[in-house]
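input
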Amino acid sequence: MEDTLDKFVAELQAEINRGTLETYGEVVFKRWQEPLYMGRMALADGYARVTGSCGDTMEIFLRFEEGQVKEASFWTDGCASSMVCGSYAAELARGKTLEELSNITGKTILDILGGLPDHDRHCAFLAAETLQKALEHYLNVTGKNERT
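output
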């Protein structure tokens, strides 16, 4: 009986993986399987928490060194697409200057992913908005807010 259940679970997981790969593409699928930069960061220089219209909450944490993002991480309570978009937002932020960071948009994230289905596109914009608010937090705290 246990072998039958294990076989069923393995086949079901393989079917889910095939469907996800077909729907979302290889870039999203790989990051879904192995998310990077996920986790809350203590003592972040820049931080933001945004809840999107879908109800997903995204947090972005930034640590700066010499005018560049030294470390970045994210956390979300949202769906797999939110997790993937948060992961790429954190990855894109790493090593960026303040100006470069300010240019990261939802479209930037979507372009890297090769797009998302219409019902998930908002996740890229949620991640980018949260990233920009974390940058604004850093600029406000340090008194470097040249964007206002």
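quick obs: The chain has one domain: 25-142.
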